[in-house]
Design a protein that fits this description.
Shape: globular
Helix content: 10-25%
CATH class of the largest domain: Alpha Beta
Number of domains: 2
Radius of gyration: 18 Å
CATH architecture of the largest domain: Roll
Structural class: alpha+beta
Distance between the termini: 7 Å
Order of helices and strands: EEHEEEHEEEEHEEHHEEEHEEEE
CATH topology of the largest domain: Diaminopimelate Epimerase, Chain A, domain 1
Length: 268
């Protein structure tokens, strides 16, 4: 049995930028989680998404796997999944897509400019004292603020330059007992974005994720409060880089971005 598989660069309008995700279509059959984990390891991307129709138009089961573990929430692979469904003609262009996931129901819609908007749960961070080893693993940085969200620590640094220059000890970060560490600062000047971030998740098998939609479920509420605005754009300053439009809405966050298909194939 063959299964269609795609590689999609998410949160970018250009190929070979943003965050690549594999998207595997499962047709109507269920798949063994162990098999899905092995496929994700074979794809060797930060996430592989598995989509299965749920019997209603526009409704799908969705699971995400890194090469090492299954994760509870992933933004860029959800964006990639919605992109595949629309661009491959598997879903009506104006239809809102619904995904049943480990983080509850998620939704995606596409606006007239081709931007895909994801409706995700907000995961705001509450202030905490830095745990032992956190700031040391980040290179002994001086943090302006440290918080803990549902999945990750959030660390605010003094400026954008400090975020871009960061060279953490990811092996030490893996021992913190969380999915990952988000490091952020306000934008340092013109560039079309309001804040920058980087995301390190060695505990999930990813030293640095290129562009992380789920991290912006924490970043959105944080920067909306500090900047006093509900329409924000974040730039994730990895080597690939990508823009995420962010619209906090109470206990939800809308994440907007584009995607590009770079590979179509059959998993045999």
């Amino acid at each position: 049995m063959t299964r269609p598989v795609f590689c999609v660069d998410a949160f970018t309008a250009e190929p070979f930028a943003g965050n690549p995700a594999a998207v595997c279509l499962l047709e109507d059959e269920a798949a063994d989680p162990g098999w899905m984990q092995r496929v994700a390891a074979e794809m060797n991307l930060s996430e592989t998404a598995f989509l299965r129709p749920q019997g209603e138009a526009g409704r799908y089961g969705l699971r995400w796997f890194t090469p090492a573990v299954e994760v509870a929430l992933c933004g860029h692979a959800t964006l990639a999944s919605a992109h595949v469904l629309w661009t491959e003609g598997l879903a009506e262009p104006g239809l809102q897509l619904r995904f049943d996931t480990a983080s509850g129901p998620l939704a995606a819609r596409r606006d007239g400019d081709g931007v895909i908007w994801l409706d995700f749960p907000a995961t705001p961070a509450a202030p905490v004292d830095p745990p032992a080893g956190l700031l040391e693993a980040l290179g002994g940085v001086a943090a302006r603020w440290v918080g803990l969200g549902r999945f990750d620590y959030l660390v605010e640094l003094e400026d954008e330059a400090a975020v871009r220059a960061l060279a953490p000890d990811v092996r030490r970060l893996a021992g913190l007992g969380v999915r990952g560490v988000i490091v952020t600062a306000a934008a340092g000047g013109p560039g079309g974005h309001d804040f920058v971030s980087r995301f390190f998740a060695p505990g999930a098998g990813i030293d640095e994720d290129p562009v992380t939609g789920s991290a912006h479920c924490t970043l959105g509420p944080f920067w909306a409060e500090r900047l006093g605005r509900s329409r924000l754009t974040g730039f994730q300053a990895s080597s690939r880089g990508g823009l995420v439009q962010v619209r906090p809405r109470g206990d939800r966050v809308l994440l907007g971005g584009r995607a590009v298909t770079v590979l179509r194939g059959q998993l045999v």
